[in-house]
Write a structure and sequence with these properties.
The complex is a heterodimer of chains A (about 250) and B (about 280).
Chain A lengths: L2 H33 L2 H11 L4 H25 L6 H39 L2 H7 L4 H39 L4 H11 L2 H28 L4 H30 L1
Helix pairs in contact in A: 1-6, 2-6, 3-4, 3-6, 4-6, 4-7, 4-8, 4-9, 6-8, 8-9
Chain B lengths: L14 E12 L2 E12 L3 E5 L6 H8 L7 E6 L2 E2 L5 H8 L2 E4 L11 H12 L4 H14 L15 H13 L5 E5 L7 H18 L2 E5 L3 H7 L2 E6 L2 E6 L1 H5 L4 H8 L15 H10 L1
Parallel strand pairs in B: 3-8, 3-9, 6-7, 7-8
Antiparallel strand pairs in B: 1-2, 1-4, 4-5, 9-10
The chains are: A mainly alpha (about 250), B alpha/beta (about 280).
């Protein structure tokens, strides 16, 4: 690697940070205009949310089943198997639900957003809108960002519910934990603060993943290779930032 | 008479688009170095030149997607670089542009593509929009394709739909980016007739960027030949055809030999071949 390239990397990082910041400001301005046309936003909630339902529900079910299986095994070592319901609920609401949904969201909806916008750019569709005096930020980027932002908490809620059913299925149905104890322990141990933590995380993760996906699509090189690279960057950046923000938010809510 | 630059005596008020001594470069490469072009109202102006001379870049300067580093690009009498974002959008509403690849929105069908600018910029009832769109689609011979998705269209059909979209708002100026590339003879003839018809019947000023000399010669009122970042010749197509200029002659006859190099700069051919053997 040449010295020139080494010197260029930090500058390139600063430049990308600046470009993303400006993009975010423009995006937030455009969100107001996009909200005035709810039809576009609803279509994107369907694209990002409804089309991710199967993968989210399946993942939630299996995650809950693992929690039931593993939780029962670990808790019974301490004679605390009655706490399975509360353990599963806290784990899903506070951590696993938001984080796993965000990672799946980045892989499913995030990549779809990036590649769709990237291809629109590569085929001059965004330029055509500009020339037709239609702002692509308001028509393309903002509705997709809002769609992801709104869909994410809904997907997390569904993941949590299906996960709890999975834990119940294994813990109560297979391993013989008392059904009443499972639900009553959960009810007494889980507070509004835990639910709030999950909701805040889901909104933040949704905003981060959607922003990255839309920004990468918008800024990508308008070539087949450029769109492919941008799609990869979406998954990597959204996943890493999800885990980073997870740590920060967990620390805030402690 | 063949000119090296637009006539200084031409009436300024008659110019819908005027490029004055424009310079533009990208990544250290100069695209335009003192470009002068005047597009007069109600005429068909052809901008010709070899590939890579910045013909599409010129259209991007006119539509305010790019700005000249120096010089002026006047659109409807105002320097596009001095306009605010909303003023540029207002100017664009008076223009239509046909993209080389059509640039149709791929997630909506042909009808909705043509209706797109109308729905975005007017409050017309859907029944009126329907009549308007069908009229424009009929004009390009694709009324029957209204329900098709862009992925189901051939390249020529996509271009014709894009043309219907470009004219649906009845623009004052139409910009065509390589409108004849890849068209079959029937579509090509139809596009030529449409450009001429819209110019004559509706008075639309047209700027056609292309390197299809023969086709342009049949419709253009005024032609500019770009090379090396500037206008090397201008006049009617007939005047360009009679030109003594080597550059003009090479371009009009399609010769590989002349001032415009066909080969990209490279080391000596024989030396490179022999060097490969030795290596």
């Amino acid at each position: 690697m040449s010295n020139g390239v080494r010197r260029g990397l930090p500058l390139e990082g600063v430049r990308k940070f600046g470009v993303t910041g400006i993009f975010l400001a423009r995006l937030l301005l455009a969100c107001g205009r996009a909200l005035a046309r709810p039809r576009l936003v609803i279509a994107q909630i369907y694209n990002a949310g409804a089309r991710s339902l199967i993968i989210i529900m399946l993942s939630g079910l299996f995650t809950g089943m693992v929690l039931g299986l593993l939780g029962q095994d670990v808790l019974q070592r301490f004679g605390a198997e009655t706490a399975l319901g509360q353990m599963a609920a806290l784990a899903l609401l506070k951590e696993l639900g938001p984080v796993l949904t965000a990672l799946l969201f980045a892989g499913r909806a995030g990549t779809a957003l990036t590649s769709e916008i990237g291809l629109m750019k590569a085929t001059d569709q965004l330029t055509a809108m500009e020339v037709m005096a239609v702002d692509p930020m308001s028509y393309v980027a903002a509705p997709r960002f809002l769609g992801g932002l709104i869909a994410m908490p809904l997907l997390v809620a569904i993941f949590d519910v299906i996960g709890l059913l999975g834990a119940h299925l294994i813990g109560v149905g297979l391993l013989g934990v008392d059904r009443g104890t499972f639900w009553s322990q959960m009810q007494s141990a889980v507070g509004m603060r835990d639910v709030t933590e999950g909701i805040v995380k889901s909104v933040v993760f949704g905003a981060v993943a959607s922003l990255i996906a839309v920004n990468e699509g918008y800024q990508c090189e308008p070539t087949a290779e450029g769109v492919g690279l941008a799609t990869t960057r979406t998954v990597v950046a959204a996943s890493v930032l999800t885990l980073l923000f997870d740590y920060v938010l967990t620390a805030v809510f402690l | 008479m063949l000119q090296d630059a637009p006539s200084a005596s031409a009436d300024d008020a008659d110019a819908v688009v005027e490029v004055r001594d424009a310079h533009y470069g990208i990544d250290g490469r100069e695209i335009f170095s003192g470009l002068n072009i005047r597009v007069r109202r109600g005429l068909i102006t052809a901008v010709m030149g070899p590939s890579g001379t910045g013909k599409t870049t010129l259209l991007r300067l006119i539509t305010g997607q790019l700005f000249a580093s120096s010089g002026q690009v006047l659109v409807f009498g105002r320097d596009i670089a001095s306009l605010s974002g909303s003023e540029i959008y207002a100017a664009r509403k008076r223009m239509g542009m046909l993209f080389q690849n059509g640039a149709l929105l791929t997630d909506i069908d042909v009808f909705d593509n043509v209706a797109f600018p109308v729905r975005e910029h007017t409050d017309l009832p859907e029944s009126v929009i329907r009549k308007l769109v069908l009229t424009k689609l009929e004009a390009v011979g694709l009324r029957g394709a209204a329900g098709l998705m862009p992925a189901e269209l051939s390249g020529g059909m996509a271009r014709r739909v894009a043309l219907a979209r470009a004219i649906v708002m009845d623009p004052e100026v139409l910009l065509y980016d390589e409108p004849f590339v890849g068209l079959d003879p029937i579509s090509l003839g139809m596009i030529l007739r449409l450009i001429k018809h819209m110019n004559q019947a509706l008075g639309i000023t047209s700027i056609v960027v292309s390197h299809d000399v023969q086709e342009l010669a049949t419709i253009a009122d005024q032609s500019y030949l770009l090379s090396g970042g500037t206008v090397v010749a201008s006049g009617t197509p007939q005047e360009l055809a009679r030109s003594d200029s080597e550059t003009v002659h090479q371009f009009m006859t399609g010769s590989a030999e002349g001032p415009v190099k066909f080969h990209y700069p490279a080391p000596d051919y024989a030396g490179q071949l022999l060097g490969a053997d030795e290596g």
